[in-house]
Amino acid sequence: MPTQPASTDVLVVGGGVIGLAAAYRLASDGATVRLVDASGTRGASWAAAGMLAPVSEAIFGERELTRLNLAAVPAFVRFAAQLESALRESGTELPVGLRTDGTLAVALNADDRAALDRLTEFRNSLGLASERLTGSATRRLEPYLSTAVRGGVLALDDLSVDNRRYLTALRAGCEAAGVEFVAGEVAQLTSREGRTTGALTTDGVEFSAGTVLLCSGAATGRLLDVGVQPVKGQILRLAVPERLRAAGEVLTRTVRGIVRGSEVYLVPRAGGEVVVGATSEQQGEDTTVTAGGVYELLRNAYELLPISSEFSFVEARAGTRPGTADNAPLLGRIDDGLVLATGHYRNGILLSALTAEAVAAVLANAPLAPEWSPFGAARFRSEGYAPCR
Ligand code: FAD
Ligand code: GLY
């Protein structure tokens, strides 16, 4: 017989950035919240680069997603400030490492420049502010860039956060707000008369709740067939040596490059770390780091920023982005007891605060912000939901 702890208002399945942000918001609003996570919050959110980049992530055909991503920036800034201040009031200083220096998108050769110009035209047509720069103006902003760089575009509305600090702060905020954490893997959701009532773990424990909030990222398809597919990303963490840091920051803002047709980004952190990412591969739930992935990232980083060959190698990791057919999240009610918040693909860190707000609205049966209307949980499943058992 499965053991059955007391029921809670909400059971959150998945403790990545989406589950944590939602749990924090709901518990702060007074709900009793239990969060079950299988990996100790080491999913895609831990691997991520932490860019909050509605401008430089905007690609052709994604107007509605771009609108959502733009709305996510002020929501993130408010949420992070509120989280930091709530922790400070309880005696804990956990700054999340928000940076507001913008993104510099650069191109290596003439073809790359043409590709960047086409993207910039599209971004400008959406009203996104980005300033076109010559090669020398680009290098005046970031003097360590290669002399081969053909030019760039500065997007001041993109931000970044140290996602690992943010996750640590979210976890501390959840604990302070009374969220109960459970280490365990949900094997299946439980239901009665068409309504989800809880979840059963592989250890045989059945957790019941008024609402189950499914935030299981790229692994969602194991529990519910809603159209989430893992998209693997390999990513590196390098460290700028002290002797270089003594002369000032080697990179003062996020740099995203098109390098002979392939893309790379370099995201600096206050402590001297530079995050270099990321591959994009359809490999199922595989998170192996490959020699080819590391080579590609180091080569592209070196082409843009030759001095990166002097950085020390700290970490190579792979995470799986929760992808969907339109690259946008799935948010909303599936049945009276089940709410879905997943599929955030390349922008889960950026969208975390806006998602937490939206989840709170769904649970309160309040209207969602209009930016969410194209991204309902049911849009890929007209014939209804098939729980995976
Ligand atoms: P996850 O962080 O993967 O968390 C899901 C959690 O659910 C995991 O902890 C897992 O253990 C748990 N889980 C799954 N199934 C079960 C189960 N059955 N039972 C219990 N627990 C379960 N986004 C940005 O906004 N900016 C970026 O710069 C950025 N860079 C990225 C770089 C890389 C290399 C990658 C891979 C992603 C990047 N992303 C970025 C995307 C972002 O990381 C994701 O969109 C986001 O982390 C998704 O959050 P999540 O909470 O849904 O998933
Ligand atoms: N948003 C960056 C990535 O997913 O790699």
Automatic annotation (TrEMBL):
Pfam families: DAO (PF01266). It comes from the Bacteria. It catalyses: glycine + O2 + H2O = glyoxylate + H2O2 + NH4(+). Residues 9-361 form the FAD dependent oxidoreductase domain. Its EC number is 1.4.3.19. Pathway: Cofactor biosynthesis; thiamine diphosphate biosynthesis. It is an enzyme of class 1 (oxidoreductase). Transmembrane segments: none annotated. Keywords: Oxidoreductase, Thiamine biosynthesis. GO terms for molecular function: glycine oxidase activity. PANTHER family: GLYCINE OXIDASE, SARCOSINE DEHYDROGENASE-RELATED. This is glycine oxidase. It comes from Jatrophihabitans lederbergiae. The lineage of its organism: Bacteria, Bacillati, Actinomycetota, Actinomycetes, Jatrophihabitantales.
